[in-house]
Amino acid sequence: MKLLLFLITIATVGSQNPDECPFMCTCTQDKKVICKGLDRFPVGLPDDMKDIVFDVSSFNNFGKNSFQTFKNLKTISFINSNFTSINPCSISDLSNLTKLELSNVRIDQIETHGFSHLSQIKEIVMRKVLVQRLHKYAFNNIKHVDKFVMEIFTAGNMENFVFHDWLNMRLVQLNKFQVLYMKSIPFKNFDAIDQFEITECTFPSPMCGLKDILRNPSVKKIKLHENAIDCSCNTKWIFEVGRSAKDFRLVNNTCSLNSPSQLATREVLSINKNLFCKTDEVPTCGDGTYKTRTPSCQEFPNESHNAGTHRHVHMYTLCIVAVLSVASKLKG
Ligand SMILES: *[C@@H]1O[C@H](CO)[C@@H](O)[C@H](O)[C@H]1NC(C)=O
Ligand SMILES: *[C@@H]1O[C@H](CO)[C@@H](O)[C@H](O)[C@H]1NC(C)=O
Ligand SMILES: *[C@@H]1O[C@H](CO)[C@@H](O)[C@H](O)[C@H]1NC(C)=O
Ligand SMILES: *[C@@H]1O[C@H](CO)[C@@H](O)[C@H](O)[C@H]1NC(C)=O
């Protein structure tokens, strides 16, 4: 009887082999992993997994390059989850990934290079995301992505250059992106984007950063539809660029409540641009010569990752069980 119990114990422990599936996760035959109710990045994920879903999880910290060892990874989804912080280079260098999805996610802060060095991904979709603070270069160095969508995205506080260094993208869509406080240069260093659409967004700042995108001839098509824009001295450029750009559509945008009171809520194209200046306003849209070097991901300190610990504990348990089992056999 005792022996049987020990054999069962061995069988149970053995089936939780670290190559199989971590606690709170389900791993399927087709290499999909679904984890639910986690409070940290799991250890012991299968090296060959293709898809991973984190559902109803709450992460205190998200380490640098957590996904690097999973070379076959095609999709990553975070749904119904919370993060205190997306640390530098947390979601970065995933060149084989085809889809990254965040849906119904709350994040206290996305730090510099939180999402960075992402290239060749077909789709990055962030829907129903609430972020309290977006640091400089939060979305940095994103290239060759077919579709980048941020929809129903709310940001409390946004620094300058949050969107930085984007190149060769087919479609960038910001839809219902709402910011409460922001600096005026959210966008910096954009090149070769086929289509850039900003619809139903609220920006309480003159959006000087858009100037670079609009003036850049390699950004082919730009759509600004139904946005609330801060109409001030610093927004005059929109008209100038609007006249010269080849495919620039400025439709149904209204002046936001941050605008001089006589302009607020009026259709942007209907107002007389001479009315734009608040008397006490100091223009802040320079010509965009900001020379700030962005550090590479390698320059950020590595997170201490104890992926090995779990395995050690596991081996230790197995040993004890084996010893006990042998002892019991000898006794019996
Ligand atoms: C995430 O945060 C929200 C708001 O604080 C809370 O209602 C929700 O339960 C949290 N979700 C998880 C998975 O912790
Ligand atoms: C992408 O896949 C290739 C081939 O499977 C592999 O050699 C490479 O290391 C992978 N890259 C990353 C960043 O995982
Ligand atoms: C602009 O707004 C008007 C009135 O609300 C509407 O009829 C029209 O379809 C809108 N145009 C676009 C392109 O959204
Ligand atoms: C971080 O880890 C990588 C490899 O995992 C290593 O090449 C690099 O030197 C490390 N960087 C630091 C600052 O320790």
UniProtKB/TrEMBL annotation:
Gene Ontology CC terms: plasma membrane
Keyword Repeat annotated: yes
InterPro entries: LRR_dom_sf, LRR_TM_domain-containing
Signal peptide: 1-15
Keyword Iron-sulfur among record annotations: no
Keywords for the protein's UniProt record, in alphabetical order: Leucine-rich repeat, Repeat, Signal
PANTHER family reported for this sequence: ANTIGEN BSP, PUTATIVE-RELATED (PTHR24369), CHAOPTIN-RELATED (PTHR24369:SF210)
Designated name of the protein: Uncharacterized protein
Species this protein is from: Mytilus galloprovincialis (Mediterranean mussel)
